[in-house]
Amino acid sequence: MTGFTGIPFAALDFYEDLEADNSKLWWTEHKDVYDSAVKAPMTALLADLEPEFGSAKLFRPYRDVRFSKDKTPYKTHQGGFVARGDGLGYYVQIDPAGLFVAGGFYHGSTDAVARYRTTVDDDVRGAELERMIATLTKAGYEIGGEKLKTKPRGYDIDHPRIDLLRHKSLTAEKHFGSPEWLKTPKAATKVRDAWRALTPLVEWSAALHT
User: What is the pTM of this model?
Assistant: First the structure.
């Protein structure tokens, strides 16, 4: 038993208030809310999912502001990630809008992107990916990732999978919002089912990152 009982709406309120006052003073005064309403339930959620998906990383709440014009010190969301490779895996997040899940590959080396495009170009493996994307889209997932505005070098503009070939990263994501079940253990079931739906895309991508 992981002790996961749900994600309280206090977590959403915490981040809504943090957006309004992203200061060290406010954070210090409300850190107990972060610990109890955000960190503890998210840690329990990831522990609940670990037997099936593997060990997860709960991201730090502090922003890296060294090279950013935005110097606000704290992230206005809490994310967790199960890595299946470099920049590849399953993601879950809580923020003022509620629950968000995603999966796929978020970035790749030049070689990995080249292997991705070669695989998409293949009539068998490329068609396999097309079917996965169609299934996820039908299930309400939004397809994302960094894309070229034009065609990649070496491929024809009329290629049957030109839209997929433009991708430099490829993800699928779903926003659940803040339904009543978010406060209950059912939230773990919802994330688990979503990650299961994303598994074919994650595993297809993992073959390119080995």
Answer: 0.94
Residues whose CB is less than 8 angstroms from the CB of residue 150 and which lie 6 or more positions away in sequence, other chains included: 166
Which has the closest alpha carbon to 121: 167, 161, 169?
161
Q: CB atoms < 10 A from the CB of 198, how many?
A: 25
What is the model's pLDDT at position 2? 57
Alpha-carbon gap, residue 75 to 60, rounded angstroms:
8
Residue 18 has phi, psi (to 5 degrees) of: -65, -35
Q: What is the pLDDT of residues 83-117, one digit of tens each?
A: 998 889 999 999 999 999 999 999 888 898 999 99
Task: Catalogue the long-range contacts made by 129-137 (C-beta closer than 8 Å, 24 or more residues apart).
Answer: 129/161, 129/164, 129/201, 129/204, 130/161, 130/164, 132/200, 132/201, 132/204, 133/164, 133/172, 133/201, 135/200, 136/172, 136/197, 136/198, 136/201
